[in-house]
Structures are given as structure tokens and as C-alpha cells.
Amino acid sequence: MIYTVTLNPSIDYIVEVDQLILGGLNRMERDLKLPGGKGINVSRVLNQLEVENKALGFLGGFTGRYIEEWLHQEGISSDFVAVADDTRINIKLKAKEETEINGTGPAIRAAEAEALLHKLDALQASDIVVLSGSVPPSLGADFYDRLIAVCKRRGAEFVIDTTGQALRQALVSRPLLIKPNHHELAELFGVTITSRDEIIVYGRRLLEEGAQHVLVSMAGEGALFISEQGVYHAKAPAGIVKNSVGAGDSMIAGFVGTFSLTGDLLEAFRAGVASGSATAFSDDLASREHIERLRSGVVVSKV
Ligand SMILES: Nc1ncnc2c1ncn2[C@@H]1O[C@H](COP(=O)(O)OP(=O)(O)O)[C@@H](O)[C@H]1O
Ligand SMILES: O=P(O)(O)OC[C@H]1O[C@](O)(COP(=O)(O)O)[C@@H](O)[C@@H]1O
Q1: What is the pLDDT, as a whole number, of residue 175?
Q2: What is the pTM of this model?
Q3: CB atoms within 10 A of CB 278
Q4: Assembly ipTM
């Protein structure tokens, strides 16, 4: 079974304006409220791929109810801890350029945090736990360490998709997969990356620090898969980008879902790229049909 953990879910409020006038009145051309937060996105795409999974995390207030209701209607199994404060709303502003404004997240009380840790006590060695996204500040910077400790104690594999020190610290615990995009990779090492060779150098360092597999996504340029077995590249399929929010999460869902079903790393890589691109070419997250349509066209080549 795959569990996704979203410590900081969101309603993604996607707003389109023709031309943004800063300091003036803007009228929306179109708007859309989607359930968001990285683990929730992973669960929604796993559900499209018909891979059994359960979404965990914290949800609160009217925004939390909106997300819970949406997941219920999509038939996604979930077991969120109810928190007193409201789940955040993240703004995704689409004008000529895409601008994102993400909230810091609700206050999580100590008892609520303990309740989530407690839910993971039921993990089994065959499970994979996907830990995704930012940590609400009130939880403390070491909360992922505490979740990882439970995964290790139960013998379950974990995937972690977060940034900075929280990601760095997790590497010694041997995550099954990490998926920084190329900007996040550069940020991790405090460098500027200008070539594919440099991505490979820094990706390999993450293997040395403990990651079992490293996927570096590069938006429209596709992705690199770096592991002990070698380095592979896949070009992104061609298409018209509609909304790339959630492309990275979809890539993780495609990879982990396919790996859990087949144990084949390169098939998983191919499905990851197809899922990320299918989401980038959609208003909402990718559908199963769209992923399937793109999957056969993704060519994986050894670097
Ligand atoms: N503009 C795009 N065109 C085609 N595919 C894309 C595009 N943006 C994202 N993707 C697909 O989604 C994957 C993840 O996207 P990326 O933007 O790198 O991740 P993140 O959302 O984590 O920043 C890419 O590797 C690619 O397969
Ligand atoms: O927890 P964070 O880092 O603030 O990210 C949350 C945001 O990331 C998303 O999950 C999208 O992530 P990706 O585009 O990286 O896949 C949004 O749904 C959400 O608003």
C-alpha cells in the first residue's frame, strides 16, 4: 500500500487575468479552486492510475472540508487528522507569467501532531510512504525526521519531496526516491547549474549522501534519472502547457505507482515523465487516458 502524507495541504486558487495591473483593479478572466498540497496531488494521480493508496495529513476548517469532500467524490481513500485552524489557500496567478503565493499554513497543536504519528504505527514493511511538501512552522523543522523514524521502525520505504535542510537531513535514512527540480538541486548545493553534466554531478552527490534513486525534473526539458544502475534521460513529450502546478507531484505518482506495480525502474521513470507532462498539458491534474497516450512516446536513453 502507498501512503501519502501532506503536512500542509492547500486549496490552490488558480486565477487568470489578461494583463496584471499591480496596484490597480484586476478582473479575473477565469478562476478555479483545486485541492492541493503535494501529497494530495500524488494521491489523486495514483488514483487515476488505479494504484491503491491512502492520503494522510492535517486538514482543518472550511478549506479542509472542501478538500476532504473533493477527495471523497473522487473515491480517494483518506484518513486526515482534523485540526482546529483553517487549511491554507495558495494563489496561483496566471498572467503573462505564472506567479505563486503559497501560505505558511495553519497552527498544528502538539496533540494533533501526535495523532498523525500514531496513524503511521500501522505501517507494514511492504508499504511505501510518500512525504511531500512544506512543513507548517508550528510543527518544527524536525517533524519529517520523526515521521521517517516511524517508517524505519516499521521497515517501510519512504519517498521525500521537500526542499532545503529537511531534504538534506532525510538522505541518511536512505529514501527510495527524491525528486528535486533542477532549481531546487542548485539551491541545495548553493550553486548555479548551467548544464546537464553539472546536474549529473550534483545528482550523484545526493546518491552518495544516501538517496537510493534521484529524479531531477527539468520542466519542458524532461528529466534525468540517476541511480547506482546508471544515468538516464527522457525528453518531455511535446504539447501545449495549460497549468504546470502539480507536474512534479504527478511525476512522483507515475514513478512510485509504476514501481510498486512492476518493480521496473525505467518503466517507472517513463511513467513519471508521461504523468508530469500530462498534468502540464491539463487544467487540473493528469487523467489516466492522457498519461497512457503520452507514455509510449517517452523515449528513455542511457547517458
Ligand atoms: N512545459 C512542460 N512541457 C512538457 N512537460 C512538462 C512541462 N513542465 C513540466 N513537465 C513535465 O513534468 C515534469 C515535472 O515538472 P517540473 O516543472 O520539473 O517539476 P516541479 O513541478 O516539481 O517543479 C517534467 O519532468 C516534465 O516531464
Ligand atoms: O507545500 P508547498 O511547498 O508550499 O507546496 C504546495 C504547492 O505545491 C503543489 O502541490 C504543486 O507542486 P508541484 O508543482 O511542485 O508539483 C500545489 O498544489 C501546492 O499549492
Answers
A1: 98
A2: 0.96
A3: 28
A4: 0.96
